[in-house]
């Protein structure tokens, strides 16, 4: 009998079973990197553009207007949202019953929260200077993200979600206290980069 036709050893069979199990689980639950990385890239691009507009001393570092920077952020977030929505839809196809219902309600909470945030910020931002108006929008959106991540962690018993919400809240609080330029810089580096690192770590752990 040639080597290619020999019977696999128990260790080899166990290794193949483990590899297939990991691959199947990842397919069913979704790739964490695919869910985290798009937001990380979007925030790095968008908030870097805002940082170049604001600067740290009130003077722009690049000839980019606030509206152009916001446009970069919004376009990047829309593209990221499309990628993440695809991943979530694929995961939801494999879940039924109570878990699926909780996921749906959690998704509606995101939509309702951001809709309310847009109404409030649209009402208040015209009363503020441009930098403070931008800080209001950015700080409010990250406050909502942090709160919903912590709520999602509690809802789904997911400590990664919960602690990432705490991290977003801490970075957002520090950035708001320091001002628009620092907020954009910290968000781009610590949250944009943090999303990517979190996706890699969760993917490796899974």
**Outline:** globular
Order of helices and strands: HHHHHHH
Q: How is the main sheet built?
A: none
Counting DSSP H or I runs of 4 or more residues, the number of helices is: 7
Please report which band the strand proportion falls in: under 5%, 5-15%, 15-25%, 25-35%, 35-45% or over 45%: under 5%
How many structural units, i.e. domains?
1
What structural category arises from helix and sheet content? mainly alpha
In which range does the helix fraction lie?
over 70%
- Taking the alpha carbons of the first and last residues, their distance comes to 39 Å
**Average predicted local confidence, pLDDT:** 82
Protein name: Transporter
Transmembrane segments: 33-56, 68-88, 108-128, 134-152, 159-178, 184-202
Keywords: Membrane, Transmembrane, Transmembrane helix
Topology:
Blueprint: H1 10-29, H2 32-54, H3 66-92, H4 98-124, H5 130-156, H6 159-178, H7 180-205
Helix pairs in contact: 2-3, 2-7, 4-5, 5-6, 6-7
Notes on the structure:
The protein has about 210 residues and is mainly α. The protein has one domain. It has helices spanning about 10-30, 30-55, 65-90, 100-125, 130-155, 160-180, 180-205. Helix 4 (about 100-125) runs antiparallel to helix 5 (about 130-155) and helix 6 (about 160-180) runs antiparallel to helix 7. The longest helix is centred in the middle third of the chain and has 27 residues, at about 65-90. The mean pLDDT is about 80. Keywords: Membrane, Transmembrane, Transmembrane helix.
């Amino acid at each position: 009998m040639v080597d290619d036709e020999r019977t696999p050893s128990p260790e080899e069979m166990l290794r193949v079973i483990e590899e297939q199990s990991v691959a199947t689980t990842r397919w069913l639950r979704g790739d964490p990197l695919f869910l985290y990385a798009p937001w990380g890239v979007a925030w790095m691009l968008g908030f870097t553009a805002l940082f170049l507009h604001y600067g740290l001393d009130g003077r722009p570092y690049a000839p980019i207007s606030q509206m152009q920077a916001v446009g970069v952020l919004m376009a990047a977030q829309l593209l990221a949202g499309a990628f993440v929505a695809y991943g979530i839809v694929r995961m939801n196809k494999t879940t039924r019953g109570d878990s699926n219902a909780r996921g749906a309600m959690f998704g509606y909470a995101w939509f309702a929260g951001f809709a309310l945030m847009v109404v409030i910020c649209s009402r208040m931002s015209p009363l503020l200077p441009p930098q403070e108006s931008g800080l209001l929008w950015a700080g409010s959106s990250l406050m909502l993200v942090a709160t919903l991540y912590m709520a999602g962690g509690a809802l789904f018993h997911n400590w990664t979600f919960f602690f990432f919400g705490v991290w977003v809240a801490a970075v957002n609080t520090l950035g708001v206290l320091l001002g628009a330029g620092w907020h954009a810089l910290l968000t781009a580096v610590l949250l944009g980069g943090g999303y990517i690192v979190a996706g890699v770590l969760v993917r490796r752990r899974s």
